[in-house]
Amino acid sequence: MKKTFVFICFLLIGISQVLYAEKPKAKHVVLIALDGWGAYSVPKAKDIPHISQLMAEGCYTLKKRSVLPSSSAINWASMFNGAATEIHGYTQWGSKTPEIPSRVLNKHGVFPTIFSILQEQKPELKTACLYEWDGIKYLIDSLAVSHHALAPDYANHPTLLCEMAEQYIKAERPHFIAVCFDQLDHTGHDAGHDTPSYYDKLKELDSYAGRIMQAVKDAGMWEDTIIMMTSDHGGIKTGHGGITLEEMETPFIIAGKNVKRGGEFEESMMQYDTASIIAYIFGVKQPQVWVGRPMTQVFK
Protein backbone atom coordinates (compact mmCIF):
# COMPACT_ATOMS: atom_id res chain seq x y z
CA MET A 1 0.00 0.00 0.00
CA LYS A 2 2.81 2.37 0.96
CA LYS A 3 4.66 1.64 -2.30
CA THR A 4 1.49 2.29 -4.29
CA PHE A 5 0.97 5.62 -2.51
CA VAL A 6 4.57 6.70 -3.18
CA PHE A 7 4.26 5.68 -6.84
CA ILE A 8 1.06 7.72 -7.24
CA CYS A 9 2.70 10.76 -5.61
CA PHE A 10 5.67 10.60 -7.97
CA LEU A 11 3.33 10.12 -10.92
CA LEU A 12 1.29 13.18 -9.98
CA ILE A 13 4.43 15.25 -9.47
CA GLY A 14 5.73 14.16 -12.86
CA ILE A 15 2.45 15.01 -14.58
CA SER A 16 2.32 18.42 -12.91
CA GLN A 17 5.87 19.19 -14.01
CA VAL A 18 5.13 18.25 -17.61
CA LEU A 19 1.97 20.33 -17.64
CA TYR A 20 3.80 23.28 -16.09
CA ALA A 21 6.63 23.03 -18.60
CA GLU A 22 4.17 23.09 -21.48
CA LYS A 23 2.16 26.06 -20.23
CA PRO A 24 3.21 29.21 -22.13
CA LYS A 25 4.29 32.24 -20.14
CA ALA A 26 2.78 34.58 -22.72
CA LYS A 27 0.95 34.36 -26.03
CA HIS A 28 3.31 36.73 -27.85
CA VAL A 29 7.05 37.46 -27.82
CA VAL A 30 8.59 40.49 -29.53
CA LEU A 31 12.38 40.41 -29.81
CA ILE A 32 14.03 43.73 -30.75
CA ALA A 33 17.72 43.17 -31.48
CA LEU A 34 20.27 45.90 -32.22
CA ASP A 35 23.38 44.77 -34.08
CA GLY A 36 26.52 46.16 -32.44
CA TRP A 37 24.88 47.26 -29.19
CA GLY A 38 27.54 47.07 -26.51
CA ALA A 39 26.42 46.81 -22.90
CA TYR A 40 28.97 49.48 -21.94
CA SER A 41 26.69 52.06 -23.61
CA VAL A 42 23.61 51.59 -21.44
CA PRO A 43 24.80 53.41 -18.29
CA LYS A 44 26.31 56.18 -20.45
CA ALA A 45 23.31 56.79 -22.71
CA LYS A 46 21.34 59.86 -21.65
CA ASP A 47 18.11 59.61 -23.62
CA ILE A 48 16.81 56.06 -24.08
CA PRO A 49 13.43 56.25 -22.29
CA HIS A 50 11.87 53.12 -23.79
CA ILE A 51 14.89 50.92 -23.05
CA SER A 52 14.98 52.38 -19.54
CA GLN A 53 11.26 51.67 -19.12
CA LEU A 54 11.72 48.01 -20.01
CA MET A 55 14.64 47.74 -17.60
CA ALA A 56 12.59 49.29 -14.80
CA GLU A 57 9.52 47.14 -15.45
CA GLY A 58 11.30 43.82 -15.97
CA CYS A 59 14.69 42.15 -15.59
CA TYR A 60 17.99 42.70 -17.32
CA THR A 61 21.69 41.96 -17.42
CA LEU A 62 24.49 44.00 -18.94
CA LYS A 63 26.83 41.01 -18.89
CA LYS A 64 25.37 38.64 -21.48
CA ARG A 65 28.38 37.37 -23.40
CA SER A 66 28.75 36.72 -27.09
CA VAL A 67 30.29 33.55 -28.39
CA LEU A 68 33.68 33.84 -30.06
CA PRO A 69 34.59 35.38 -32.34
CA SER A 70 32.44 38.39 -31.40
CA SER A 71 31.18 38.88 -34.95
CA SER A 72 27.80 39.09 -36.59
CA ALA A 73 26.69 35.87 -38.31
CA ILE A 74 28.25 33.71 -35.61
CA ASN A 75 26.33 35.44 -32.86
CA TRP A 76 23.04 35.88 -34.71
CA ALA A 77 23.22 32.13 -35.37
CA SER A 78 23.87 31.42 -31.69
CA MET A 79 21.04 33.74 -30.65
CA PHE A 80 18.51 31.83 -32.78
CA ASN A 81 20.14 28.38 -32.64
CA GLY A 82 20.59 27.88 -28.91
CA ALA A 83 24.16 26.64 -29.34
CA ALA A 84 27.74 27.82 -29.82
CA THR A 85 30.01 27.96 -32.84
CA GLU A 86 31.46 24.51 -32.32
CA ILE A 87 28.02 22.92 -32.54
CA HIS A 88 26.03 24.93 -35.11
CA GLY A 89 29.13 25.41 -37.29
CA TYR A 90 28.82 29.08 -38.34
CA THR A 91 32.31 30.49 -37.75
CA GLN A 92 32.78 33.58 -39.95
CA TRP A 93 31.52 37.19 -39.84
CA GLY A 94 29.32 36.67 -42.89
CA SER A 95 28.65 32.92 -42.76
CA LYS A 96 25.74 31.83 -44.94
CA THR A 97 26.30 28.12 -44.45
CA PRO A 98 28.25 26.38 -41.67
CA GLU A 99 31.98 26.07 -42.21
CA ILE A 100 31.97 23.17 -39.74
CA PRO A 101 29.23 20.58 -40.38
CA SER A 102 26.37 21.21 -37.97
CA ARG A 103 26.19 18.54 -35.29
CA VAL A 104 22.49 17.91 -36.00
CA LEU A 105 20.26 18.74 -38.98
CA ASN A 106 16.50 19.27 -38.93
CA LYS A 107 14.05 18.29 -41.66
CA HIS A 108 15.11 21.32 -43.71
CA GLY A 109 18.74 20.20 -43.64
CA VAL A 110 19.95 22.94 -41.28
CA PHE A 111 20.72 23.21 -37.58
CA PRO A 112 17.50 23.49 -35.50
CA THR A 113 16.56 27.11 -34.75
CA ILE A 114 13.97 28.57 -32.43
CA PHE A 115 11.79 29.06 -35.51
CA SER A 116 12.02 25.42 -36.57
CA ILE A 117 11.27 23.97 -33.13
CA LEU A 118 8.25 26.27 -32.82
CA GLN A 119 7.08 25.12 -36.26
CA GLU A 120 7.56 21.46 -35.34
CA GLN A 121 5.99 21.53 -31.89
CA LYS A 122 3.43 24.33 -32.24
CA PRO A 123 2.71 24.69 -35.97
CA GLU A 124 -0.29 26.90 -35.23
CA LEU A 125 1.99 29.73 -34.09
CA LYS A 126 2.64 32.61 -36.48
CA THR A 127 6.31 33.65 -36.55
CA ALA A 128 8.21 36.40 -38.32
CA CYS A 129 11.69 37.83 -38.73
CA LEU A 130 12.26 41.31 -40.17
CA TYR A 131 15.81 42.56 -40.67
CA GLU A 132 18.11 45.18 -42.17
CA TRP A 133 21.13 42.93 -42.73
CA ASP A 134 20.54 40.44 -45.52
CA GLY A 135 22.76 37.88 -43.77
CA ILE A 136 20.07 37.20 -41.16
CA LYS A 137 17.97 35.15 -43.58
CA TYR A 138 20.67 32.48 -43.82
CA LEU A 139 20.69 31.92 -40.06
CA ILE A 140 17.02 31.55 -39.09
CA ASP A 141 15.87 28.57 -41.20
CA SER A 142 13.71 30.66 -43.51
CA LEU A 143 11.57 27.62 -44.39
CA ALA A 144 10.41 27.49 -40.77
CA VAL A 145 9.36 31.15 -40.51
CA SER A 146 5.82 32.20 -41.37
CA HIS A 147 7.13 35.49 -42.77
CA HIS A 148 10.54 37.06 -43.21
CA ALA A 149 11.54 40.21 -45.05
CA LEU A 150 14.47 42.55 -45.63
CA ALA A 151 14.21 46.31 -45.16
CA PRO A 152 16.41 47.47 -48.06
CA ASP A 153 18.49 50.65 -48.30
CA TYR A 154 18.03 51.64 -44.69
CA ALA A 155 20.85 54.19 -45.02
CA ASN A 156 18.40 56.31 -47.01
CA HIS A 157 15.26 55.01 -45.30
CA PRO A 158 16.20 54.48 -41.65
CA THR A 159 12.60 54.18 -40.46
CA LEU A 160 11.64 51.47 -42.96
CA LEU A 161 12.22 48.43 -40.72
CA CYS A 162 10.34 50.08 -37.88
CA GLU A 163 7.43 50.81 -40.21
CA MET A 164 7.44 47.24 -41.51
CA ALA A 165 7.34 45.91 -37.95
CA GLU A 166 4.52 48.26 -36.96
CA GLN A 167 2.42 47.26 -39.96
CA TYR A 168 3.04 43.54 -39.58
CA ILE A 169 2.32 43.46 -35.86
CA LYS A 170 -0.95 45.35 -36.21
CA ALA A 171 -2.09 43.37 -39.26
CA GLU A 172 -0.98 39.85 -38.30
CA ARG A 173 -0.57 39.82 -34.49
CA PRO A 174 2.33 37.29 -34.66
CA HIS A 175 3.07 35.01 -31.76
CA PHE A 176 6.83 35.49 -32.17
CA ILE A 177 8.53 38.23 -34.14
CA ALA A 178 12.22 39.17 -34.25
CA VAL A 179 13.03 42.69 -35.48
CA CYS A 180 16.76 42.99 -36.19
CA PHE A 181 18.27 46.45 -36.70
CA ASP A 182 21.71 46.84 -38.29
CA GLN A 183 22.13 50.62 -38.03
CA LEU A 184 24.03 50.84 -34.74
CA ASP A 185 26.70 48.44 -35.98
CA HIS A 186 27.31 50.61 -39.03
CA THR A 187 27.60 53.70 -36.85
CA GLY A 188 30.12 51.83 -34.71
CA HIS A 189 32.18 50.97 -37.77
CA ASP A 190 31.96 54.44 -39.31
CA ALA A 191 32.06 56.88 -36.39
CA GLY A 192 33.26 54.51 -33.69
CA HIS A 193 31.84 52.94 -30.59
CA ASP A 194 31.32 55.08 -27.50
CA THR A 195 31.14 58.26 -29.58
CA PRO A 196 28.46 61.01 -29.75
CA SER A 197 27.28 59.60 -33.09
CA TYR A 198 26.90 56.16 -31.54
CA TYR A 199 24.73 57.50 -28.72
CA ASP A 200 22.68 59.60 -31.17
CA LYS A 201 21.94 56.46 -33.16
CA LEU A 202 21.08 54.51 -29.99
CA LYS A 203 18.64 57.28 -29.06
CA GLU A 204 17.05 57.00 -32.52
CA LEU A 205 16.75 53.22 -32.22
CA ASP A 206 15.20 53.63 -28.77
CA SER A 207 12.46 55.68 -30.43
CA TYR A 208 11.88 52.85 -32.91
CA ALA A 209 11.61 50.39 -30.02
CA GLY A 210 8.98 52.68 -28.52
CA ARG A 211 7.03 52.71 -31.78
CA ILE A 212 7.12 48.91 -31.97
CA MET A 213 5.90 48.70 -28.37
CA GLN A 214 3.06 51.07 -29.25
CA ALA A 215 2.16 48.89 -32.24
CA VAL A 216 1.87 45.93 -29.85
CA LYS A 217 -0.54 48.00 -27.77
CA ASP A 218 -2.49 49.12 -30.84
CA ALA A 219 -2.82 45.47 -31.91
CA GLY A 220 -4.42 44.63 -28.55
CA MET A 221 -1.53 42.30 -27.64
CA TRP A 222 0.23 44.21 -24.88
CA GLU A 223 -1.24 42.44 -21.85
CA ASP A 224 -0.21 39.02 -23.21
CA THR A 225 3.21 39.92 -24.64
CA ILE A 226 6.81 39.63 -23.49
CA ILE A 227 9.24 42.18 -24.94
CA MET A 228 12.92 41.27 -25.20
CA MET A 229 15.83 43.48 -26.30
CA THR A 230 19.38 42.31 -26.92
CA SER A 231 22.28 42.32 -29.37
CA ASP A 232 24.69 40.06 -31.22
CA HIS A 233 27.90 41.78 -30.05
CA GLY A 234 29.34 45.09 -28.90
CA GLY A 235 32.46 46.81 -30.18
CA ILE A 236 35.54 48.88 -29.45
CA LYS A 237 36.85 51.84 -31.46
CA THR A 238 35.59 51.01 -34.98
CA GLY A 239 35.57 47.23 -34.84
CA HIS A 240 34.62 44.01 -33.11
CA GLY A 241 35.49 40.34 -33.29
CA GLY A 242 38.01 40.28 -30.49
CA ILE A 243 38.01 39.25 -26.85
CA THR A 244 37.53 42.54 -24.98
CA LEU A 245 34.46 42.87 -22.81
CA GLU A 246 33.44 45.93 -24.83
CA GLU A 247 33.07 43.59 -27.81
CA MET A 248 31.64 40.60 -25.97
CA GLU A 249 29.21 41.98 -23.38
CA THR A 250 25.73 42.89 -24.61
CA PRO A 251 22.49 43.86 -22.88
CA PHE A 252 19.60 41.50 -22.40
CA ILE A 253 16.31 43.03 -21.26
CA ILE A 254 13.01 41.25 -20.73
CA ALA A 255 9.65 42.64 -19.55
CA GLY A 256 5.97 41.93 -19.88
CA LYS A 257 3.53 39.12 -19.12
CA ASN A 258 4.67 36.91 -16.21
CA VAL A 259 8.08 38.62 -15.98
CA LYS A 260 9.19 39.82 -12.56
CA ARG A 261 9.95 43.45 -11.86
CA GLY A 262 13.31 42.19 -10.69
CA GLY A 263 15.87 44.64 -12.06
CA GLU A 264 19.39 43.47 -12.80
CA PHE A 265 20.13 39.77 -12.39
CA GLU A 266 23.56 38.39 -11.62
CA GLU A 267 23.30 34.88 -13.07
CA SER A 268 25.60 34.17 -16.01
CA MET A 269 23.98 34.44 -19.44
CA MET A 270 25.35 33.57 -22.86
CA GLN A 271 24.23 34.47 -26.36
CA TYR A 272 22.69 31.06 -26.99
CA ASP A 273 20.51 31.30 -23.88
CA THR A 274 18.25 33.72 -25.79
CA ALA A 275 16.73 30.93 -27.88
CA SER A 276 16.21 28.80 -24.78
CA ILE A 277 14.31 31.61 -23.05
CA ILE A 278 11.98 31.93 -26.04
CA ALA A 279 11.42 28.15 -26.09
CA TYR A 280 10.68 28.23 -22.37
CA ILE A 281 8.16 31.07 -22.78
CA PHE A 282 6.23 29.08 -25.38
CA GLY A 283 6.47 25.84 -23.45
CA VAL A 284 8.29 23.88 -26.16
CA LYS A 285 11.04 21.35 -25.59
CA GLN A 286 14.46 22.41 -26.83
CA PRO A 287 16.61 19.96 -28.80
CA GLN A 288 19.19 17.93 -26.91
CA VAL A 289 21.91 19.45 -29.09
CA TRP A 290 21.19 22.94 -27.78
CA VAL A 291 23.36 24.07 -24.90
CA GLY A 292 21.34 27.16 -24.01
CA ARG A 293 19.36 27.39 -20.78
CA PRO A 294 16.42 29.63 -19.93
CA MET A 295 16.81 32.35 -17.32
CA THR A 296 13.87 30.95 -15.33
CA GLN A 297 14.58 33.25 -12.39
CA VAL A 298 13.18 36.26 -14.27
CA PHE A 299 9.67 34.80 -14.44
CA LYS A 300 6.90 34.92 -11.87
Compile the SSE list and pairings.
Blueprint: H1 2-22, E1 28-34, H2 41-44, H3 49-57, E2 59-65, H4 72-81, H5 85-88, H6 114-121, E3 127-131, E4 147-150, H7 160-172, E5 176-181, H8 183-190, H9 196-218, E6 225-230, H10 245-248, E7 249-256, E8 263-264, H11 273-282
Parallel strand pairs: 1-5, 1-6, 2-8, 3-4, 3-5
Antiparallel strand pairs: 2-7, 6-7
Helix pairs in contact: 7-9, 8-9
Short description:
This protein has 300 residues and is of the alpha/beta class. Helix content is 38%, strand content 15%. It has an eight-stranded mixed sheet with strand order 4-3-5-1-6-7-2-8.
Plain-language structure description:
InterPro entries: Alkaline_phosphatase_core_sf (IPR017850), Phosphodiest/P_Trfase (IPR002591). It comes from Phocaeicola acetigenes. There is one protein chain. With 300 residues, the protein is α/β, with parallel strands linked by helices. The chain has a single domain, classed as Alkaline Phosphatase, subunit A (3-Layer(aba) Sandwich). The protein has eleven helices and eight strands. An eight-stranded mixed β-sheet has the order 4-3-5-1-6-7-2-8.
